[in-house]
Amino acid sequence: MDKKPNIILIMTDQLRGDCLGYAGHPDVKTPYLDTLASTGVMFDRAYSACPSCIAARAALHTGMEQSHHGRVGYEDGVPWNYEHTLAGELSKAGYYTQCVGKMHVHPLRNYLGFHNVELHDGYLHSARYGSVPYRESQFYADDYFYWLKDQLGASADVTDTGIDCNSWVARPWTHEEKYHPTNWVTDRSLDFLRRRDPRQPFFLMASYLRPHPPFDAPQHYFDLYSGKDLRPPFVGSWETDEYLKRDGRIFDSKTGPADPELMRQAQIGYYACITHLDHQIGRLIMGLIEHEIYEDTVILFTSDHGEELCDHHMFRKSRPYEGSCRIPLLFRAGSGTGITVKSGQRCHSVAELRDIMPTLLDIAGAEIPDSVDGKSLLPLAADTGETVRGWLHGEHSYGDFSNHWIVTEHDKYIWYPETGQEQYFDLSADPHELTDLAAEPGCQARISQLRGYLIQSLKDRKEGFTDGEKLITGRPYPPTLETASMP
Length: 487
Fold this sequence. Notes:
Elements lengths: L5 E8 L17 H8 L2 E3 L2 E2 L5 H10 L3 H4 L16 H7 L3 E6 L14 E4 L18 H4 L1 H10 L28 H15 L6 E10 L7 H8 L15 H6 L12 H31 L6 E7 L18 H4 L3 E5 L11 E3 L3 E2 L3 H9 L13 H5 L9 E5 L6 E5 L3 E5 L6 E5 L17 H15 L29
Parallel strand pairs: 1-6, 1-7, 2-9, 3-10, 4-5, 4-6
Antiparallel strand pairs: 2-8, 7-8, 11-12, 12-13, 13-14
Helix pairs in contact: 7-10, 8-10
């Protein structure tokens, strides 16, 4: 039988597509990921079409676009009952499948086709408050929390820093570094390599929580950035500080802090978490080398969504702007995998999280289910000039900030369904979205074309966003569609 390559999916949470050394960021240092990039292919136009944790992971695990997997916003407690999943299909193809870290599904111990899951979902409000059933309490169901209390005592928690899981407040980790959840994911991933059956190919999803808040990297990593002049957040000519003035003193606001020093501290904490993450990924790479399987392994690195980090007076995710929706996507295949990769190259095709499932199934030689909407990126790794789509529809149910958008390799159109406001950005000339061209006469033909793509994407949706000819504002926009509870 032909030997199948091992597959490792390194998943991060809330990591911007531009906050990496190999992506050209002037401040953030990521030497191990830069090393992977130098021997792999970087997809520099990769997006999360519905950029928050649950919806993004639904696309990852099912290969579906959002109207099919049914998650168009953030809502906990909705069962995951999908027939075809990434891990399930790889298991059928002869892989031993293991996840370490974040799943963020329902119920918490839903394995989604993995043979085994060592779980850490971070601080989930829905599984921590009030009287919850035993099976849904993080204190019992989450393996990291269970381990941390065994190591440090019953009172130990990730909240010991005093930082909320959506906060822009930053401060170093209060315990020894070895107890940090980023280290734990690497520790358990390395232990999986020790325990694996060497005769069977494996799929390991190393699913890290950081750099999602809390910004609590160990002190060493804060020290790397605290004395540096950091690039300020991007604020364009179209901005309004209305919400910043209203909410900029709230520690978990959607605007970030109004205080410039707290804004700088948030940047320091975020970058510290990224470099700490990078070093722990380095440990995982060294483990693969020591087990002599590095060259027999395919590594795919990505994130579920980004982080605005005070760009446009915004914080967190769910927005249609690059900081929130553009993600890193890196593909590296070892010399023993038999897979051709153009090392050190960039592919400009618009890619999305739904493409990961068909890509990894393609690598495994497994059949891709008809339910999958994504496209395999494997041919693009060998020929970076190819493309899988000309445009992508993204969206997020987010109250007054609900949004739909169309993005291409070169530009972006945004529509706000609550108000009807439109925006248009020339990403080739203005990658940080500083100038809104929606009112420019010379852009109207292009805006009309992109608006047409959005109407095409929405015309069969039950929300009634369009009659097929024009967009309609003020329609109900729930975070979860009927398709999210498939039998």
